[in-house]
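pasting for ref
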Amino acid sequence: MLDANFEAWQILVVDDGSTDETMKVLRDLTPAIPQLRWLRLPRRSGKSNALQLAFSQISTDLVLLMDADGQDDPNEIPCLLEHIDAGVDLVTGRRAARNDRAVKRITSKLYNWCTARLTGIDGSDFNSGFKLMRGQVAQSVNVYGELHRYIPVLAAWRGFEVAEVEVNHRKRLHGESKFGRNRFWRGMFDLVTVKFIVTYDGRPFHLIGGLGLALGTIGGGLLAWMLVERILGTTVGDRPALLVGVLLSVVGVQLISVGLLAELMVSLHARRVDERPYTAGP
């Protein structure tokens, strides 16, 4: 399959601190497959960190991502290649008929719907582990925590063209699913992080300072009301509105200060050479 589609290829396996016989299998296969390389992390650090380590070790024209559970069908590689040849920078294999539990399919639909609406990126299977991308994409995106779910979003934010194509999804051949309620909620929290990155990366004050200005305005209004009441002779020392006004005003000033500091950091970073990829003509 690889020889038929690529002039040269290499397989890089990242063992994320597994406790099974992964390393034994890799060592047994290495003599028979000279293109096989592997990296082993001493302890489990998560898929995002494993992928980032792999991205830091490669310098190829194309990068194919596949999970080790056997659900991704290698026969779909030519389909992914067609989209790359057509000019797409990253193509995700959209699982047409998922061979997963019902609860996982339902929560995945909700997650993908929220991701598409919040980020504005067209897609319905962002978290599919079956992806083909240009090497420049792998070198440009930075995934940590659990941001591997949002590689298409991060790539699109960097200016790359992303797409999805329907692929076959097989039953799990190896391992057990790590999906759980905690993983779903972590993914949703990471969605908030990604939304902030792609929307307010260059203007954090618009969000942080804007929120602080809104709270400060409400707090200032309450304090002005209490001042008028006090001038008119009403006791305001035990009024809840006074305490709320002071609290909102203080929080508002703090958020505005944090927003200005964030803007300063962005400004200092912008003075450096822009590392974003670009294409130059003759």
